[in-house]
Amino acid sequence: MSSSNPTPRPDLQRVPKGDVLGTYDTYLEAQAIVDHLAKADFPVAQVSIVGNDLKSVERVTRKLTWSRAALEGALSGAWFGLFLGLLFSFITPALNTGLFVAAILIGAAFGLFFRLVTYAVARRSRDFDSTKQVLASNYQILVDPSLTSRAQQIIATPPAAP
Question: Which UniProt keywords are listed (predicted)?
């Protein structure tokens, strides 16, 4: 049985192989090169961006406090109460402002309570907020060996102005 697709499917369980077209410090730099190749009608299905030397980076964004936890919980609960108030306003024929305000206040109270409880439990082990990401030390563009010289010619020419 022959396939009409001339491009073989990549093996997604293995690290791609090929010639290194270039090594870049950021993913955006590598992405810009692949974009340049794509605009020159290069078969980008034969290109891979490989991140090397992966690191897990956690950046501490702030210290948690009781007041911040209370405010976050109240605001989060108020948003949920606002959502429920809007749903109730669609169900009831006449807009009842008291019901709408009550839903927001009850949501804020429950949000505040639950956030303070979760903060009290988590405070023993973690008293800060952070963001996590996985970053590579560098990014290599790999290309099929039969297309290396063509890719090098394309990236040697500056991209056309938009």
Answer: Membrane, Transmembrane, Transmembrane helix
**Residue pair 128/59 in contact by the 8 Å Cβ criterion:** no
Question: For tokens 């639950």, what's the residue?
Answer: 114
Report the C-alpha gap between 100 and 103 in whole angstroms: 5
Whether 50 contacts 16, CB under 8 Å: yes
Separation between Cα atoms, residue 24 and residue 153, nearest integer Å? 18
pLDDT along the chain (162 residues), means of 10: 54 83 95 94 93 94 89 94 84 74 91 92 80 94 93 84 61
Q: Is 140 helix (H, G, I), strand (E, B) or coil?
A: strand
Domain locations along the chain: 19-58+134-152, 65-126
Q: Give the pLDDT of residue 4.
A: 53
Which fold would CATH assign to domain 19-58+134-152? Alpha-Beta Plaits (3.30.70)
* Residue 63: how many other CB atoms lie within 10 Å: 9
